[in-house]
Design brief:
Blueprint (H helix, E strand, L loop, with lengths): L7 E3 L2 E3 L3 E3 L8 H9 L4 E8 H13 L8 H5 L12 H14 L4 E6 L9 H7 L4 E5 L11 H18 L4 E5 L6 H10 L4 E4 L7 E3 L4 E3 L10 H11 L6 E5 L5 H10 L3 E4 L1 H6 L3 H15 L5 H4 L16 H15 L2
Parallel strand pairs: 3-4, 3-12, 4-5, 5-6, 6-7, 7-8, 8-11, 11-12
Antiparallel strand pairs: 1-2, 9-10
Helix pairs in contact: 8-9, 9-11
């Protein structure tokens, strides 16, 4: 069997393969990033720097008379303590510069925020630090009953437009699936300047501690079943959106990555599997992808990408309502025979 060419294009960057280490606290360690590269990773996404951290830094500078504009939300709103996560903007720039210096694979920085304001200017400093691209992680829980769906979508678009106007490096937007029309929102984000879309952001859900009667954070790693939502929308969007497509959430095995590529993903991002198995697990996934494509006589990743998307499917309805009735019917058939 001839080894297939796993080279892929993402955000205009050439990656040696489609497996990308998505944003994770572990990626704040340059030694871990070096281990990922040695294991074959195609690119790395650095952990997110949060809007609150940047605004806090700007607020302290403002107290000293050096500040810039702050958003009203950042000044008036609740400011969580993120000291245990990382120590702020200056150290993040150091991480960007160090990662770029030590790695040959593309380094993608990550900003996490929900509002427009002075904090978005930090994207320019990230670009100056040498990052190959920027991922904008929009983590917004639409809890305000006075905000309409249109209001929420407009906030996303204004934020993307503001960051796009700040940097010239490629910009990816990581978003959740909770829109009335995800396909339309994906198109509008691309029109607003996003070079790529990352499907999907995984919203962590809080828990209640019955002993202390407090609301507590509750981080649970992903499981393979969560990949199905990404698979559907990857297949629906492939060939219909003028932007790169990255799949993330629920990818634990090579087979998961293969399915997402066949659905249309340009790259497949992993986090939970690496946290569970370590950086070397990257090699296992890449080798599995290579073996599957070789066994099925594909000469390249491009040959198979999107071959099972809705656009190219022999049964396009399988990704829409027909899938619902077939799923119910198949379950009944399995349990009545």
């Amino acid at each position: 069997m001839t080894d297939p060419d796993l080279t892929t294009q993402y955000l205009g960057l050439t990656l040696r393969n489609p497996i990308v280490a998505s944003a994770s606290p572990a990626n704040a360690d340059v030694n871990h990033l070096i281990a990922l590269e040695a294991a074959g990773i195609g690119a790395v996404v650095l952990p997110s720097l949060f809007e609150e951290q940047i605004e806090n830094d700007l607020l302290m500078m403002d107290d000293l008379g050096f500040g810039g504009p702050l958003s009203a939300e950042a000044v008036a709103g609740y400011r969580p303590n993120l000291d245990a996560y990382n120590t702020g903007p200056s150290d993040y720039l150091t991480l960007v510069e160090s990662a770029v210096e030590h790695l040959d694979v593309p380094v993608i920085a990550s900003l996490n925020g929900i509002s427009t304001g002075g904090w978005t200017s930090f994207a320019e400093q990230i670009e100056d630090g040498g990052a190959d691209a920027l991922e904008l992680n929009i983590y917004l829980v639409a809890a305000n009953s006075n905000e309409t769906g249109q209001d929420i979508e407009d906030r996303y678009l204004r934020l993307v437009e503001e960051v796009r106007a700040t940097v010239s490096i490629p910009l990816a937007v990581k978003l959740g699936p909770y829109f009335s029309s995800p396909a339309n929102m994906a198109k509008r984000l691309a029109d607003a300047g996003a070079d790529g879309l990352v499907l999907f952001n995984r919203f962590y859900q809080p828990d209640i501690d019955l002993d202390t009667l407090t609301v507590t954070p509750n981080l649970v790693l992903s499981n393979p079943a969560e990949m199905r939502l990404v698979l559907r929308w990857m297949a629906l969007l492939h060939g219909r959106i003028d932007a790169s497509l990255a799949a993330t959430t629920g990818v634990h095995q090579a087979e998961d990555a293969v399915k997402l590529i066949l659905a249309g993903a340009d790259v497949v991002m992993i986090t939970s599997a690496l946290l569970q198995h370590g950086a070397d697990y990257t090699t296992t996934i890449i080798d599995g992808v290579r073996q599957w494509f070789a066994h099925h006589e594909y000469t390249s990743l491009d040959q198979g990408r999107g071959s099972l998307s809705q656009q190219n499917s022999l049964d396009p309805s399988a990704f829409e309502r027909a899938n619902y009735t077939e799923t119910i019917a198949s379950y009944v058939a399995r349990h009545t025979t």
